[in-house]
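Z., the sequence and structure:
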Amino acid sequence: MTDLTHDPGHKAAGERTVRHGAAEPLIRGGTAIRVGTASWTDRTMTAKGVFYPDSVKTPEARLRHYATRFSMVEADAGFYAIPDPQTAERWVERTPDNFVFNVKAHALMTGHATEISRLPRSIREALPPSLAAGPRVYAKDLPLELRDEVWRLFRNAVTPLHESGKLGAILLQFAPWVRPERSTPAMLARARDLLGDLPIAVEFRHPSWLEARLRERVWAQLREQHMTYVVADTPPGAPTSLPLVPAVTTSELAIVRLHGRRSELWGASDAPVVEKYRYLYDPAELEEWLSVILELSGQTEQLHIVFSNCYANYGATNALEMAELIAPMRNKKGPAQ
């Protein structure tokens, strides 16, 4: 990538970063607006001199430092391997009372494949021999009881966050090949049943969900299951690019996720993940989102703006810049929710 505006390197991106941080929600129209990134542990972000001070070297220190700059974060590690409750307990201990986590659901919960070697031992040992011998598996190939066990283990893993008031939502980011069909209401109802009263957010990865003839029905199904619809910024011009159609489906939470705009790599199965999100939004591109933020704020108790362009300090830089853009619009007074 040779576009120095959108890939200038971490030093140039860091020079753009505002200094005050976004460790407290910004209140506008009764909505607590939280800004953060989709990771705090990406290797390009933890590299020396990129985002963390040289003295911040341990996982504990990194999370504590991150929480001095932002009031929320998205944890994506659970997508690759189901965490244990002790991990969530440590997250609770290492962050301020007013900090929240959105947690990305495990791959098997959203139509993706997962590496068998990263499954919990209890599930690996229960796999039929024909599946256990392979490198990867999809949920559709598992016996029903093992599919349910994945959801049960994940629910248990995030329970400490929920009990502490620090769980923003479980993010169900459905695979691009998951399309709307007659079984969609049952799919969403099953997710609600398996996750109980935990907050759920849904991000679609195929434009068919948001076709003009269908989107209102989809939003109604999300409202019926009390699930937050995620408004996503995806690179334009790709087969799985999404139209920008904001909507609110729960009164508690709205979420915006910004993925960068590397159209040439979006949806490419052979492209390294780190390269797909290697994109720094320019100021004009961030300002384009202010109208959406104005539309969503006031309709929900909280609005999360998540930058998933987590290459180096790109996401953190843009998150801080977005907070600076929103700050003049906030209420002069008002408690964070």
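The mean pLDDT is 93. The chain has 14 helices and eleven strands.

Let me know what you think.
H.
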